[in-house]
Amino acid sequence: MSEIHHRTVHVDGTGVFVREAGDPARPTLVLLHGFPSSSRQYVRLIDRLAGGWHVVAPDYPGFGLSDPLPTSPTFDRLAEVTGGVIDALGVDRYGLYLFDFGAPVGFRVSLAHDRRVRAVVVQNANAYREGFGPGAAALAAWWADRQGAQAAADDLVSLAGTRAQWLAGARDPAHVDPSQYLADQAILDLPGRARYMQDLLWDYRHNLDRYGEFQSWLRRRAPGLLAVWGANDPIFPAAAARAYRADVPDAEIVLLDTGHFALEEEVDAVATAVDAFLVRHLTSTGDIPVGGTSTGDIPVGGALGGTATAAGGWPRGPVRPAR
Question: Do residues 117 and 51 touch, judged by C-beta distance below 8 A?
């Protein structure tokens, strides 16, 4: 098991908790978590990737073990602080792994850091209006009627709502570790934290207005892009993964037979796909990232030392290639 180091980085007076593993001399992958979770969701993935990569996973302000922001949170501010953490750690060029909230945070960071972002992995991380599924209906109803649909927003920060997020689309709910959603709920139950999260969920609607900018960055920068996706996710279904090909035509898409928190059931398949992708896209030396142009069989393994090969780049495990 790789040794994970824990530290707190201060950005504009806010203490941000960071998990870090692997040799800093190696290429860096920054893992950005979702709602209502924290970098804790990535511990098993970090262990599998840190042998070949430098891996950094911060908690957003107000999530996990990070301090909340002193004012009402916004995605703009989360991205500013996250970018500040990356700068404070001395990371220059790097890849991003985006999950859920990681998409609006990470693509804002990409707009600011531009050429520094060499490769992007999106895992159930949406950046398209057509990428929302029925699991997002309650949030959309609240945006349309904040007072009338307040009960839906209250449910999202309750234990039942947190558990539902973690189990959404899971092949077998017994595979999901209850300590994951119980740890998240312990943070949500801190004084003032539920309202803090609801303020951020209310701000989420502004992300839709930024999607055009995110998509323009993808077209302009043409980074290598891997969409590794829990295909049974009712919040961001497989259509959200396929949507990336509108802007990155040679994006690699891996659909896994699992749900929103895909790592709970498919951490090995995800790690294998991510590792092979990073070998192709995060180890190039030019100023402009290499776009994904591989066709045919792609070896699965790379820095992880695996030896299996899967046709079309699909890793081992219960996988459905994208149509």
Answer: no
Residue ranges per domain, the chain? 4-135+204-321
Backbone dihedral angles phi then psi of residue 107, each to the nearest 5 degrees: -70, -30
> How far is 188 from 64, CA to CA, in rounded Å?
9
Q: Which residue has the tokens 């039942």?
A: 160
Partners of 17 in the beta sheet? 8
323: its two tokens: 């149509």
Burial of 209 (0-12, 13-18, 19+ CB in 10 A): exposed
260 is catalytic: yes
| 170 vs 230: CA distance, rounded Å | 8
CA distance 237 to 169: 10
Identified catalytic residue from 33, 54, 113, 260: 260
253 Cα distance to chain centroid: 15
Contact (Cβ atoms closer than 8 angstroms) between residue 172 and residue 259:
no
Average pLDDT for 157-186: 98
**Between residues 310 and 215, which one has the greater pLDDT?**
215
Supply the pTM of this predicted model. Answer: 0.88
Read off the amino acid at residue 272: T
Q: What angle do CA 36, 47, 301 make, to 5 degrees?
A: 115
Q: What is the pLDDT of residue 293?
A: 30
Can you say whether the dihedral through the CA atoms of 61, 63, 64, 67 is positive or negative? positive
Superfamily of structural domain 4-135+204-321? Alpha/Beta hydrolase fold, catalytic domain (3.40.50.1820)
